[in-house]
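Our working data are protein records whose layout never changes between entries. The record below serves as our worked example for the rest of this section:
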Amino acid sequence: MSPKHPQKGRFVVFEGIDGSGTTTQCRMLSQRLRNAGRTVWTTSEPTGGPIGRVLRDILSGRLSAAPETVAYLFAADRSDHLLGTRGIIERLDAGELVVCDRYKHSSLAYQSVENDPRLVADLNRRFVDPDILFFVDVPASVGEQRISSRARREIYERIAFQEQVRSRYLELLADESRFRVEILDGSGTQAAIAEKIWLVLHEASIL
C-alpha cells in the first residue's frame, strides 16, 4: 500500500489518455488558484530533469528502449520528482499546493500494457498518494481526433494502445480507495470541466 503524505500542502493529480485535455485543465486550475492568492506549483511527468529528458526522447521515438526499461525510467524520474531539491515533497512540506499533470497512475496504466502489471505496481508502490486524482475521461477515438493534427506522434499515440490504456485506467480507479478519485466527462467544454474541478476541490476542502 502506498503511504499517505503527512505534509502541510495538498497534492492534486490529473490523469487521462493522450488527447484527453489534462494539460489544459492543469493550466486552467493553476491560473485560477493563483488568481485566488494560492501558492501553486504546476508540474508534470515525465519531468524536465535528466531522466525525464531521456524519457521524452524515448516517447518521441528519437531513442529506443525495451518496455521494462521504460517502466524503470519512469519510476526513477518519479523518485527524483518527489524527493529532489524543490521537488513535490519539499513543496508540500512548505504548504504549497502541487498540481501535477500525470503521476504514478500513468505508469500503472501505460507501462502495464507492455509489462507485467505486478512489476509496474512494485516499482510505484512506495510513492505517496495524491489527495485527489482527476481522471479526464474520453474515448480513444476522441483522443485520436484531437491529436490527429500533431506533426509528430509519440510511441503510445496509437488508438489500439490508447484503448487498452483507458480500460486499464478505469479498472485501476474503480478499485482505488486510498484517496479521492473524480472521473470527469472530458467531452464537455474546457470551461465546464474546469468549473466541475473547482467545485469538487471546494467540496473536498482542498482549497
Observations:
- The mean pLDDT is 95.
- The beta strands are 10-15, 40-44, 97-101, 132-137, 180-185.
- The two ends are 26 Å apart (CA to CA).
